[in-house]
Amino acid sequence: MQRLTNKEEEIMKILWRLEKAFVKEIRAELKGDKPHYNTLSTIVRNLEEKNYVSHEAFGNTHRYYPLVTKENYRKHFISNTLVDYYDNSYKSMVSFFAREQKISIDELKEIIELIEKKD
Description:
Blueprint: H1 6-18, E1 21-22, H2 23-29, H3 37-49, E2 53-58, E3 61-66, H4 70-86, H5 90-99, H6 105-118
Antiparallel strand pairs: 1-3, 2-3
């Protein structure tokens, strides 16, 4: 699975939410400065080449839909992040978030409870 650019991820989030969409519908959902229609169409076709999306043809226009689920992308992305930045250690990753105060003690306790309940 290839890593996506920020703009590609933004488009995928829209497709995951809408499930199927034409380029004009994707463009309408984008926040802030919207790329030109042709630019956006090129990005969507690049996602298709990377096997993230496919399309249904309606004459000369295409309706795109995701081939990769949000959950599968998240698992892949988190796994790669874990290997690349935390030496494949969940402990190191959680420690990082705790040190940066991105996760509270209460949240850590909830995580421990979830782990204990799983067994």
